[in-house]
Write a structure and sequence with these properties.
This protein has about 230 residues and is of the alpha/beta class. It has a single domain (about 5-230), classed as Rossmann fold (3-Layer(aba) Sandwich), CATH 3.40.50. The chain contains ten helices and ten strands. The protein has helices at about 40-50, 70-75, 95-100, 115-120, 120-125, 135-150, 165-180, 195-200, 220-225, 225-230, and strands at about 5-15, 15-25, 30-35, 55-60, 65, 80-85, 155-160, 185-190, 205-210, 210-215. Strands 6-7-8-3-9-10 form a six-stranded mixed β-sheet, sandwiched between helices. β1 and β2 form a beta hairpin. It is globular, with a radius of gyration of 17 Å. About 40% of the residues are buried. The model has no long low-confidence stretch (mean pLDDT about 95). It binds adenosine-5'-triphosphate and magnesium ion. Adenosine-5'-triphosphate binds near residues 16, 18 and 39. Magnesium ion (MG) binds near residues 42 and 159.
Length: about 230
Amino acid sequence: MSLLKLDGVQTRYGHSQVLFDVSLDVDEGEVVALLGRNGMGKTTTIRSIMSLTPAFQGDIRFRDRALRAIPAHRIARLGIGLVPEGRHIFPNLNVRENLVALASRAGGGRSWSLAQVYELFPRLAERAANMGWQLSGGEQQMLAIGRALMTSPRLLVLDEATEGLAPLIRGEIWRVLDLLKRHGLAILVIDKNLDDVLRIADRVFVLEKGRTAWHGAAPAFRAERDVQARYLGI
Ligand SMILES: Nc1ncnc2c1ncn2[C@@H]1O[C@H](COP(=O)(O)OP(=O)(O)OP(=O)(O)O)[C@@H](O)[C@H]1O
Ligand SMILES: [Mg+2]
């Protein structure tokens, strides 16, 4: 049984339909990359999963439970830890407060303590008393990941978590994601840096104009230069 499964998902913003037929699945302990050029519907797929922009058609299941009827604020508590595009940390809480604000065991996955998150990201321990607004982009991203972990997720979802960050900081984030994978955490990751994301991904789904256009094993995707050219323009 899949941990997460989308089948024929269709989503629109007002009258403008953006997703026409998105199907994908993530198994326990698996890292899945969601790829596609700008505007193809990756973020909207995540928003549909989280009920932030609910799908109007299709099936979305997490641990065999239909998500479409469940409001956004309850989905996090089912065990999906979201690291959204733009991070959305609390600017007026300090690092420690950001981490504990939404901490919960409700997600049902491994519960990460404050100390364990600080161990993953020593930088956050050093900045524990700093306010959210005082952090660098990279530190905010680490904080967003740490905050998601503290909801005890069974699935971590990352939307462009390394965008705009310096190579050293990006490396730090991939190091942690790889560690989380080895802890058995399932991860759904969107990222523009193909080399980095393919190093950690087990499988790949590619979106083209709101449809799942290709899916397969990460090594197969890496080998398929024409698929990369057609769908990613590289
Ligand atoms: N709030 C919105 N209202 C109307 N249209 C939107 C909205 N958000 C996104 N869209 C449109 O939906 C389409 C898919 O956008 P989405 O953000 O899902 O793409 P994406 O694959 O995440 O792109 P990117 O790689 O640039 O982040 C785009 O055409 C975009 O312009
Ligand atoms: Mg996006």
